[in-house]
Design a protein that fits this description.
52 residues
Length: 52
């Protein structure tokens, strides 16, 4: 997987949000998968869904 640098900031503004999910990244599970680096295992992440 290509290594992507995270953008470090404390606020995020996004227009056209359909919904979002707040979950912990885990190594295994059921359901849809999103690419994420191992260094984020156990961290809380937000997946934002837009109309684009």
């Amino acid at each position: 997987m290509e290594r992507v640098k995270p953008v470090i900031q404390t606020e995020l503004k996004i227009n056209g949000i359909v919904g979002f999910m707040r979950k912990k990244v885990t190594p295994f599970g059921t359901g849809a998968k999103v690419d994420c680096l191992k260094e984020y295992l156990g961290k809380t992440v937000y997946l934002v869904i837009t109309n684009e």
